[in-house]
Specification:
The chain has about 160 residues and is of the alpha/beta class. The chain has 6 helices and 6 strands.
């Protein structure tokens, strides 16, 4: 048995990267894993609502309208990975109070508000999405946010 055993943060973030592979978004593949007591309670990836055509089939509405990343979230066929993780937990009656979210990218403002209200206490993410207002809301709500590099090194946090 060689190699370094991953920390919990590295382990669950790696699982979020695997979950992201199920994404049907043309622009960005995102995966999220909700954890409580070092146990997975729900996962989610970004894609169209159940029963609707995925972007891979129908095309990207945001590309068609020339909407840049980080703007006009409502003009998207997809549900964000973080939202799907929360929805999946709710669907099966699993409490998200005091949970930790592992996500391949920083949550946007819409997701940050939902995560705050769902009782998520910490977010560990990786990726290039940048939404300073979302980070500020998380700080104000007392939700710890940590960005890890691909090698598991802490880059920033509150």
């Amino acid at each position: 048995m060689g190699g370094k055993r991953p920390s919990w943060d590295e382990y669950f973030l790696e699982l979020a990267r695997v979950v992201a592979q199920r994404s049907t978004c043309i622009r960005r593949q995102v995966g999220a894993v909700l954890v409580k007591g070092e146990r997975i309670i729900a996962t989610g990836y970004n894609g169209a609502p159940q029963g609707l055509p995925h972007c891979l089939e129908a095309g990207c509405l945001r590309d068609e309208k020339g909407i840049p990343s980080g703007h006009r979230y409502e003009l998207c066929r997809g549900v964000h990975a973080e939202q799907n993780a929360l929805i999946n937990a709710a669907r099966y009656g699993v409490s998200t109070l005091d949970s930790i979210l592992y996500c391949t990218t920083q949550p946007c403002m819409l997701c940050a508000r939902m995560l705050i209200n769902a009782g998520v206490i910490k977010i560990v993410h990786q990726g290039d999405f940048d939404d300073e207002l979302a980070l500020e809301f998380l700080r104000q709500a007392g939700v710890k946010s940590v960005k890890l590099s691909a090698r598991g090194e802490k880059e920033h946090g509150n």
